[in-house]
Specification:
38 strands, seven-stranded mixed β-sheet, alpha/beta, single chain, 32 helices
Length: about 1000
């Protein structure tokens, strides 16, 4: 039986009471009324200020935990309690300030074990060396090596392990071994000694004597299990002063897989290597790739460089010191139309400054590799191939047409600019000048410097500048409405008939078509899985059908989201009316086949037609960044009557306004934004850009700052915003907590019943019918080599075990078949992603699967907007030391409710979360989720007891110090998450 917290504490008090009876030679008392009298008059009154529960509560808790039997008025303690003397401690409380490790029993009373354990644990924090030291001739050793009082064991899963400890008297006088005990509850340890030493049965050790105490460990759950053991001695049998020696034992229980995932090398923090050339270098330009772009769209509006001013470094230093300057005053000022351009210019400069520092991590040589060598391309002898591990994952982002610098390690006087002709799996093909090709020989060693693509930053600068010039204040800072509600269109017949059955989606489409919010933006606020994109697409189709003179610009932050928009628009709109405009950096292989015929991809080349041709299309689809091409091409302001932005919460405001600034007429144009401010925004690297507001999306700012977008009397004004409520993705058990915490409990479950219930009878559910599992694991935060990113082997083992169970049980017991593509694994740290991928390779071999690569393992950002039938989440965190740094820099899941929300709302039918509950419950959001899983029967794995308070402290002591040991310019985001660099241009 699992006791509640209150009953568990009462049971512990009951065990203390039994110890009290034993130490006063009254364990033979069995009469219930007599025991009540002893408890009330003696035990409860033994120390001031300690309020114990009443006798009835204590007796009941002992009874339901099977520690006593009660027949009529006869109370009998069970054999397990009577035999468990070594886990009890007769303790003392000093009446004067304690000045050392000894515990003085003069003028003291009995004290429960838990209180003395707390006292000693507190002393260990401030005086650890005194307690772990051998003293007064007594030495404690082991058949394993104690280092600094600590013994670390690696125990394979299900193995029984015995540690022999030896208490030796190396002095000349006898010593009395009076007691030994753990300082916290031990679930998987047991202590054994021949004489069963207790305070009532001490053992005298003569000079030279050695006595063996055994610690047995047995556990089938992977994880970290610590034991803190205290040994008590007296110099004389009648002495009033005892002294203590403490030993720590830490058992790491893991499978063979856990051993394979061990750190490759001890973690050593190093500063980012920054390559600075000695003196000035001559730059030799390389060979640009030919034929990737045909530019018929003239650049009539110049794109300025917006270079970083010299004072940015000084500003960063001032911000770190907290110094006040004119620029810090601007940063701290609320955003307004009057300071709009100035503030965004400064925020973007801070972000670029940090991006440049972070990009240097990839410069070669670095902490992970030495100088680079290149090879001639066998297909084109004018190109060189450079190996860049991670480039296929945009770490760093290297796109077709980008450039980087190389120079021979022995000659920094000349740098050669290479242009990227193509990107392979882990290499890039580069075009250099004929001078480098003529001197190139196989085996030459090069230094390599990667560059930040500044085009996205430059177009954001320009957008903020143009927004003020073109007076977009009514759009960016909408005033309260003064007009009467617009007349909505008559009964609309929607292209997607399912939307007609969803009143909120239908309502949103009607208001967008009517332009009821103009000139203010219309917001479609959609929690996960509620159909934001299909609502936007329907509105686009309706406008295209009903408004003869319309021209629609549809955008999204990423190419994948823009492709989805375009694909769905084409379902009911003629192909010749729609144009998907890609950036020249987009790999042609990534363009969906069904979009090629309506896109600017011609063969392997991207064609940008003249603006007159572009203006003929009714619907133009681009990414936000690529919309800047239209501004540069001088498409007239007001040509686009409607601008739609999907996933608007996933873009910074200066990016979101690119398709508005210079293209939209504020008075007549209609802006529609769709997204969810409760989900993740973009990754930002500068902590100061985050602090001063760059991470707040346009969508979130509008919903937060302007009353017309907020609830009034419990409802939204549907002239300006519609909150979609029908969730078409997930099982109700999966939605319950996000719905409660973030969406006012308004979400309605509308997912397909067959899909959402497909794992309700899975044999590995702790409770059938509840497809949510929280699997508790006491793992350890680890790092390896020079990577500051965290991983947790125990959690990786558990996650992979669930994957095996899923693949083993498919098509059994009425379950639907499942393939790797139906499973997603989310982890907040890059190193954990890599460890899990490594572990999955073993499954691929065991199951002989060819499609294991379709099982996606990635960060929360990589799963934004996606869904899987089954989602597994590894939270990684097992040390509380990092909770605040996670909160400050928006890392991990702990202390970041948006990450939590995205992670747990990706699953359709089964959600499995693996983590350390003792750390996660420090956060109120996670605490509520844990409570929910416990109440509904979804908890499994390691179930902690209330006496495990020491475990968290021990985990913290194992973790690496949070303080930076070596100064580095890299952001914390770059160091710990190593996120993908943006590649959607």
């Amino acid at each position: 039986m699992v006791l509640s917290k209150k009953l568990h504490l009462c049971a512990r008090v009951g065990l203390d009471f039994y110890e009290f009876l034993r130490d006063t030679d009254r364990t033979g008392v069995t009469d219930k009324s007599q025991l009540r009298e002893i408890y009330n008059l003696e035990f409860r009154a033994r120390s001031d200020g300690v309020k114990e529960p009443n006798f009835g509560s204590v007796l009941y808790s002992l009874k339901v935990s099977y520690r006593v039997t009660v027949k009529r008025d006869v109370v009998t303690f069970t054999r397990s309690v009577r035999a468990h003397d070594q886990d009890q401690w007769r303790a003392v409380r000093s009446r004067r300030p304690d000045s050392g490790p000894s515990v003085d029993p003069v003028q003291t009373e009995l004290q429960p074990q838990r209180s003395l354990a707390k006292l000693l644990m507190k002393k260990l924090k401030t005086n650890r060396s005194t307690f772990i030291s051998d003293k007064h001739g007594v030495r404690i050793t082991s058949d394993h090596h104690f280092e600094d009082g600590r013994l670390q064991l690696t125990v394979t899963e299900a193995q029984q392990y015995v540690v022999k400890m030896f208490v030796e008297n190396c002095g000349t006088a006898p010593v009395h071994f009076t007691y030994y005990t753990p300082l916290h509850f031990l679930r998987y340890f047991s202590l054994v000694d021949e004489h069963k030493v207790t305070r009532t049965k001490p053992l005298t050790l003569q000079s030279g004597d050695s006595y063996e105490v055994q610690l047995h460990f047995h556990c089938t759950l992977v994880g970290f299990y610590p034991a803190t053991l205290a040994f008590e001695f007296k110099s004389h049998s009648q002495s009033t002063t005892a002294f203590h020696i403490v030993r720590f034992v830490e058992a790491h229980c893991m499978s063979s897989l856990g051993l394979e995932l061990a750190p490759e090398a001890p973690y050593r923090q190093q500063a980012a290597i920054v390559l600075y050339s000695q003196g000035k270098s001559r730059i030799m330009d390389g060979q640009r790739p030919e034929g990737i772009t045909v530019m018929q769209l003239k650049n009539e509006v110049p794109l300025k460089y917006y270079n970083l001013p010299k004072g940015v470094q000084q500003l960063v230093v001032a911000l770190k010191r907290g110094s006040a300057t004119d620029k810090t005053t601007l940063l701290e000022s609320p955003l307004s139309f009057g300071n709009y351009w100035d503030k965004f210019r400064l925020l973007l400069q801070l972000e670029e400054h940090q991006m440049l520092s972070d990009m240097r991590r990839y410069n070669i040589p670095n902490s992970e590799r030495g100088p680079a060598d290149m090879s001639l391309d066998p297909c084109n002898r004018k190109l060189l191939i450079l190996q860049v591990p991670g480039v296929s994952e945009n770490r760093p982002s290297v796109l077709r047409g980008d450039q980087l610098l190389v120079y021979p390690t022995d000659d920094p006087s000349v740098k050669y600019r290479g242009y990227v002709h193509s990107v392979q799996q882990d290499s890039v093909r580069l075009g250099f000048s004929s001078e480098l090709l003529s001197r190139f020989i196989e085996g030459m060693k090069f230094n390599v410097e990667f560059a930040v693509n500044r085009v996205p930053l430059r177009v954001q600068h320009r957008a903020a500048e143009i927004a003020t010039e073109h007076m977009l204040e009514p759009v960016l800072f909408p005033a309260l409405p003064t007009h009467n509600p617009d007349v909505l269109p008559g009964s609309l017949r929607l292209f997607d008939s399912q939307l007609e059955r969803n009143q909120l989606q239908y309502q949103a489409v009607c208001h967008i078509v009517a332009g009821s919010s103009k000139p203010a933006p219309y917001l479609v606020f959609g929690p996960p899985g509620t159909g934001k994109t299909v609502t936007l697409v329907e509105a686009i189709k309706q406008i295209e059908k009903t408004e003869a003179g319309c021209h629609i610009l549809a955008c999204a932050p990423s190419n994948s989201a823009a492709d989805l928009l375009c694909s769905r628009i084409l379902h009911h709109v003629d192909l010749h009316k729609v144009y998907r405009m890609y950036a020249s950096s987009r790999d042609p292989v990534c363009v969906p086949g069904d979009l090629k015929s309506c896109s600017n991809l011609v063969g392997d080349c991207y064609l940008f037609p003249p603006k007159e041709e572009l203006m003929k299309f009714r619907i133009l689809v681009t990414t936000l960044i690529s919309a800047a091409r239209l501004v540069s091409g001088n498409v007239p302001t007001g040509h686009f009557t409607h601008v739609f932005v999907d996933e608007a919460g996933h873009a910074v405001e200066s990016e979101c306004i690119i398709p508005l600034a210079g293209l939209l007429q504020a008075g007549s144009g209609q802006v529609v934004l769709a997204g969810d401010p409760k989900q993740l925004g973009p990754i930002l690297r500068s902590p100061f850009a985050v602090k001063y507001g760059l991470g707040v999306s346009f969508l979130e700012r509008i919903m937060t700052d302007f009353p017309q977008y907020q609830k009034k009397d419990g409802v939204f004004d549907n002239r300006f915003v519609t909150k979609l409520l029908k969730n078409y993705r997930s099982h109700p058990a999966i939605l319950r907590i996000p719905n409660e915490l973030f969406y006012d409990g308004e979400l309605e479950v509308c997912a397909d019943e067959i899909i959402r219930n497909s794992y309700c009878q899975w044999q590995h559910l702790p409770k059938k019918g509840f497809p949510v599992i929280f699997h508790a694991v006491t793992g350890i935060d680890e790092r390896e080599s020079n990577s500051p990113s965290f991983f947790n082997r125990a959690e990786a083992e558990v996650v992979v075990d669930y994957v095996k169970k899923l693949l083993e049980t498919q098509r059994k017991k009425g379950l639907a078949s499942i393939s790797p593509r139906d499973i997603g694994i989310i982890a907040p740290y890059r190193k954990q992603v890599q460890k899990i991928r490594k572990a999955l390779q073993k499954i691929q071999k065991d199951f002989k699967l060819k499609d294991m690569h379709q099982l996606k393992v990635g960060s929360v950002e990589e799963f934004q907007g996606q869904e899987r039938r089954v989602i597994l989440v590894s939270t990684v965190r097992s040390s509380p030391d990092y909770a605040e740094i996670d909160k400050t820099f928006h890392l991990g899941f702990v202390k970041n409710e948006k990450r939590f929300n995205v992670a747990v709302t990706r699953a359709k039918a089964l959600l499995v979360v693996v983590g350390n509950p003792r750390v996660l419950k420090m956060d109120p959001v996670w605490s509520r989720f844990l409570q929910y899983c416990g109440d509904e029967g979804g908890l499994c794995g390691y179930v902690h007891s209330e006496e495990d308070e020491d475990v968290i402290a021990r985990l913290a002591s194992l973790s690496i110090h949070m303080q930076v040991e070596v100064e580095t310019e890299e952001s914390v985001v770059q160091q710990q998450l190593d996120p993908e660099w943006r590649s959607d241009l």
